[in-house]
Amino acid sequence: MRLNERREFLKFMGKSGLSLGILPFLSACESLGLNKSSPIAPISPSSQDQLVLSPGLEWKSVISWNDILNPQQDRFGFNCDYIAFFPTGDNEAILWVNHESPNPIFVSNYVHGQKRTKNQVIAEQKSVGGSLVKIKKTANGWQYVQNDPVNRRIDGTQKIHFANGEIVKGQNYAIGTLGNCAGGHTPWGTVITCEENYQDFYGDNEKIKNSFKKTTTANYQWNKFFAYPPEHYGWCVEVNPVTGHAVKHTSLGRYAHECATVTEARDGRIVVYSGDDKNDECIYKLISNDQNSIHKGELFVADTVNGRWLSLDINKQPVLKKYFGNQLEVLTYARFAAHEIGATRLDRPEDIEIDPNNGDVYITLTNNKPKGNYHG
Q: Are 43 and 53 in contact (CB under 8 A)?
């Protein structure tokens, strides 16, 4: 992306993208002078096989993989990613921690090239998803409270219903959540965990005009033992950190969600931004119908070339009626729909963050190696 294109893109995201926000946003170019350097010193490249921090910072392990959470013997999951922190008092809080993917050699003792067993797959299913953990600050620092009633797992084996009673591939629920990469949290105190590389677990089906094609082979081969529809994954899952109740939201569309960055519109409705972390994919935003729910809303996709947001509402895009019978189908195959209406394909849009001081929007475009972009 050339400098002038980058500036126009940032203007679009700063003005158009967050024009519904609660802050008086400036464009990215207008506000560049307001940015201040961080008080935390940068870290130089290092070959040390240890956690290296900037001067003045320290770390302490709070909980580790396989630690026992509760009397049911649920265990803290594997491969941590996004973390949400919910204070419940001056010296205590609930942590939500994403567990993105298993490493079979550690989780299930599966070695590549050997025959995989059903029990190995179940062990891997239980290692992903997320953990809810009560933590407390003591004289020795933060520690997790073993056997607290809050402690539980939301993993790849549990029944999770779709919001609004939606029926996806013949069922109103999916079995488990997986590929949990980044996420976000809502104003009403719930966490949104994002299913990213879902195709690695049960494969994927891609819409090709008026037909479908199985385009991805499941790296973990879970589909050999559990024939769950790929369309049950690739969504955002909202979890209540106190009760553990979870629901899959179709409103945000289905793709490799890297994040779910939440802000409020001036009228109180919720806006959620998310990137599809795959080569040549898009940036999306949901504007909710209500102020206290993301169950329903209008999904948009970015056309950064022309500086506009394109609605994915089937009733506003006649071209979509050529390929889809209803709005749920559009959301289930959001990638195809986005391409058909002219959304801009980008270089792996990942995390999206909003500066709370001035409304600047920061978007990580990781890379696109087939196009020669190795560094984003």
A: yes
